[in-house]
Amino acid sequence: MSDKRIKTLIADTFLEVADALETGQYGKKPVIGFASEGSEHGEDNIKRAMELAAYKGLDARLIEGEDIHKEMEKLLDSGEIDAAVTMHYPFPIGVSTVGKVITPGIGKPMYLATTTGTSDTDRIAGMVKNAIYGIIAAKADGIENPTVGIANIDGARQTEKALLKLKEQGYDINFAESARADGGIVMRGNDLLAGTPDIMVMDSLTGNLMMKIFSAYTTGGSYESLGFGYGPGIGDGYDRLIMIVSRASGAPVIAGAMEFATNLVKHNWKKIADDEFAKAKKAGFEAIIDELKNAGKKEAAPAAAVTAPPKEICTAQIPGIEVMDLEDAVQALWKEGIYAESGMGCTGPIVLMAADKKDKAYEILKNAGYVG
């Protein structure tokens, strides 16, 4: 063996030991794949992101191929990579992403729960789930007992009541206190800027807006230069660690997303997620969600059951459907013999179907008033 190769092995060993001392784990570095569908800032931005990741000591690898997401999923499922960063991914309903920003008040990190995807088709139920997702992301990123606040938006008080009930029934939530004089769990705009809570709970559309503002407020909006991206997709039973950035994300944010992913892998994010969901369910989480979704529903004649057609591989998608109409749109296609699934794309809710059924599916949905 050459002297150069021996020196390289020795250096790698020392790096592994140093990493083990820092994290309490010993072994191979987490491998983070990057599936880039095309940055708005060109190939140089991608190259710079990979260089920054290497500078941070991360094991980041580009994912290439004709169907880049299919290749990404293959690498994740085979264990060749531990996590992936990508600029767009259609998560299923029930999965949404927890972003991580640096707040401008005192430079404190804060988790935005959530920023893309849809946790639930019911807005309030979704926000309650987002609180759990945020706790999972923060704990998996190394914060032992993160504080939780609720952004002062529509549905904040209903979310507060549900989370307080969950705590009373045994799920340990460490609520933050607003920095404003009247305090409380519900956070004001000042708390957003100061990063008062570790986790700020909101719906994903508001979170997406907040993410873009925090990431690009210093650049005029065209280049996301700050933070760690839109975060990991989290949901009960969801096994893939897929991190989202946007096409406007600059190299520092892409590299930050890779660093975020590495931390999640090192802290065994999946075990933390499973443990948190189990503890929440033990405290009556599912009953609380059902209660929220059933609240205010009018008495109505039961709809006729619709049986799904034989399952097909869904590679085509139709966007532009209101999230509250999503499941009805899927069933409208089932009635016409077209197998379909609901999902969430980067622009909002989508219905997925086989490519050869897309045109017919579009006409059905258009005639039913689901798309324009």
TrEMBL record:
<dbReference type="InterPro" id="IPR012116">
    <property type="entry name" value="Gly_reductase_pC_asu"/>
</dbReference>
<dbReference type="Pfam" id="PF02504">
    <property type="entry name" value="FA_synthesis"/>
</dbReference>
<keyword id="KW-0560">Oxidoreductase</keyword>
<protein>
    <submittedName>
        <fullName>Glycine/sarcosine/betaine reductase complex component C subunit alpha</fullName>
        <ecNumber>1.21.4.-</ecNumber>
    </submittedName>
</protein>
<dbReference type="InterPro" id="IPR003664">
    <property type="entry name" value="FA_synthesis"/>
</dbReference>
<dbReference type="GO" id="GO:0016491">
    <property type="term" value="F:oxidoreductase activity"/>
</dbReference>
